[in-house]
């Protein structure tokens, strides 16, 4: 079986690339995880079957504060990766909503600036990727709070209690 032929492998490769980009690119990721640039480059190359060893995954995830590979591994095994559950409260629901809207606005702004001249430079791509990572983080936080609201039987968003 060709390693690149299955969906799990593609998912893990995509998450590796995201994690390497979040760490600041191939050179920065190589410094963080103490591997050579060519090795990290193979991890980031979609055509290479090579996957990161766990020590590199852990080092990069800790550096970035993102757990892309760990989440992908859990998902590939049919499990969920969960932090401590957020407790829903009226203020936190509204704050999470506002934060998600702001982060999405930042993403749209970065995209509009980057695409205005009809070209996408590596620097613009990196700015868009950072903005997208913030959207993902904000959406994740929002979803946790909404799950807490659902578990509590709902909340009144306007008015008392």
Name the overall outline: globular
- What is the helix tally? 7
Quote the average pLDDT: 84
Count every beta strand, where a strand is a DSSP E run of 2 or more residues. 0
Largest β-sheet summary: none
Helix-strand makeup class? mainly alpha
Radius of gyration: 19 Å
Strand content: under 5%
* Elements, N to C (H/E): HHHHHHH
Provide a descriptive summary of the structure in words:
With 161 residues, this protein is an all-alpha fold. The protein is built from seven helices and no strands. It has helices at 7-22, 26-33, 37-44, 54-64, 68-76, 90-115, 122-151. Helix 1 crosses helix 4 and helix 1 packs antiparallel against helix 5 (68-76). The chain is globular, with a radius of gyration of 19 Å. It starts with 6 loop residues before the first helix and ends in a 10-residue tail after the last helix. The model is unreliable at 1-5 (pLDDT under 50).
Sum up the structure in keywords.
161 residues, mainly alpha, 7 helices, 0% strand
Compact description:
This protein is mainly α. The protein has helices at 7-22, 26-33, 37-44, 54-64, 68-76, 90-115, 122-151. The protein starts with 6 loop residues before the first helix and ends in a 10-residue tail after the last helix.
List the helices and strands and how they pair.
Layout: H1 7-22, H2 26-33, H3 37-44, H4 54-64, H5 68-76, H6 90-115, H7 122-151
């Amino acid at each position: 079986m060709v390693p690149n032929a299955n969906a799990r492998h593609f998912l893990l490769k995509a998450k590796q690339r995201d994690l390497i980009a979040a760490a600041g690119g191939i050179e920065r990721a190589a410094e963080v995880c103490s591997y050579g640039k060519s090795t990290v480059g193979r991890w980031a190359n979609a055509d290479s079957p090579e996957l990161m060893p766990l020590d590199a995954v852990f080092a990069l995830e800790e550096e970035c504060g993102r757990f892309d590979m760990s989440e992908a591994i859990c998902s590939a095994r049919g499990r969920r990766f969960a932090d401590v559950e957020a407790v829903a409260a009226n203020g936190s629901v509204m704050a999470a909503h506002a934060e998600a809207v702001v982060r999405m606005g930042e993403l749209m702004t970065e995209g509009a600036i980057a695409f205005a001249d009809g070209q996408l430079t590596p620097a613009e791509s990196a700015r868009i990727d950072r903005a997208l990572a913030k959207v993902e983080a904000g959406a994740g936080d929002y979803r946790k709070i909404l799950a807490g609201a659902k578990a509590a039987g709902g909340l009144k968003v306007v008015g008392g209690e």
